[in-house]
Amino acid sequence: MTEKLEDIARAMVAPGKGILAADESSGTIKKRFDKINLASTEDSRRDYREMLFRSADAMKNHVSGVILYDETIRQKAKDGTPLVDVMKAAGSIPGIKVDTGAKALAGCASKFETITEGLDGLRERLAEYHALGARFAKWRAVITIADRCPSYNCINANAHALARYAALCQEAGIVPIVEPEVVMDGEHSTHDIDACYVVTEWTLKEVFQQLYHANVRLDGMILKPNMVIAGQRCPKQASAAEVAEKTVKLLKSCVPSTVPGIAFLSGGQSDEAATEHLSRMNAIGDLPWTLTFSYGRALQAAALKAWGGKPENVAAGQRAFSHRARMNGLAALGKWDQKLEEAA
Ligand code: 13P
Question: Which numbered atom of ligand 1 lies nearest the CA of 295?
Answer without folding.
Answer: 2
